[in-house]
Amino acid sequence: QYPLTKATLRERTVGMVGMGRIGKAIARRVDAFGVPVVYHSRNPQPGVSYKYYPKLLDMARDVDTIIVITPGGAETKHMINAQVLDALGPNGILINMARGTVVDDAALIKALQEKKIYSAGLDVFLKEPEVPKEYLALDNIVLFPHLGSSTVYTRRKMEQLVVDNLLAWAAGKPVLTPVPETPLKKS
């Protein structure tokens, strides 16, 4: 088997960490390629048919690709740690599009250096725009600035969503895209 075969989605299972609005959108796209999708989040999501794992470690053992798309903060700090990376294993690929705090950089660097996982893709970093120099020395990682939403179409939709949320909040209505970690209270 050639090493590059590990870099394909064929015969992989993708584990989503976070199944909010963006996580669901990514899962639908992955699923469209015929790739099995499972997920871990705080709670099972209503209307989601993918297998739910209440424990992240259990999911990491059963998948070979993890895509992280969760909020940052104390609750998710270093949730991707040495234990999770060990469970992911030597064919594992980690993709972090969440926040830099979610992944334990030291554990990921060590896992990549020691080939405990196959590869990683990061577009978020703990101290953006700084990238740890250890990542720059690796050949089994892809680093990209946090630009996933930087199309004109997407930015216009995001701008309008901000306006619509502010108008709803000002009118005493629920916001359209609430974030559980940020309770909105009208003063």
Summary, kept brief:
With 187 residues, this protein is α/β, with parallel strands linked by helices. Helices cover 31% and strands 13% of the residues.
Instruction: Report the order of strands and helices.
Output: EHEEHEHEHEHEH
- Secondary-structure-derived class: alpha/beta
Spatial separation of the terminal alpha carbons: 62 Å
Give the overall pLDDT as a whole number.
Answer: 89
Helix content: 25-40%
- Summarize the main sheet: 7 strands, parallel
Number of helices: 6
**Strand order, largest beta sheet:** 3-2-1-4-5-6-7
Cα-atom radius of gyration = 18 Å
Total beta strand runs: 7
Beta-strand proportion: 5-15%
Question: What is the 3D shape?
Answer: globular
Q: pLDDT under 50 segments (min length 5)?
A: none
Attribute tags:
alpha/beta; 7-stranded parallel beta sheet; 187 residues; globular
